[in-house]
Amino acid sequence: MCGECGYRAARKSYLAQHVRTHTGEKPYKCDHCDYSTAQKSTLDQHVAKHTGEKPYMCRECGYRTANKSTLSTHKRTHLSEKLYRY
């Protein structure tokens, strides 16, 4: 449990991540610039901007992106195309 606000987490790693919101600690640092963040997943997304890596791909059209949520948004364009095709 968080000593600052009482937040409870299912896993120790989730609690450690939460505590950083109070401490301001940003242990994940970019090797390409001075960016730092509290979450590894956020750093991974940031580093992709430097490397150009786009690991998420749409199976329907081949669109690629560095961000999983961007791919989810993109996939909805195909759904709306199918809905309005008739």
TrEMBL record:
Coiled coil: none
GO molecular function: DNA binding; zinc ion binding
Cellular-component GO terms for this entry: nucleus
Signal peptide residue numbers: none
Pfam families: zf-C2H2, zf-H2C2_2
Domain C2H2-type span(s) in chain numbering: 1-27, 28-55, 56-83
Location in or out of the cell: Nucleus
Keywords from the named record: DNA-binding, Metal-binding, Nucleus, Repeat, Zinc, Zinc-finger
PANTHER family per record: C2H2-TYPE DOMAIN-CONTAINING PROTEIN, ZINC FINGER PROTEIN
The protein's name in its UniProt record: C2H2-type domain-containing protein
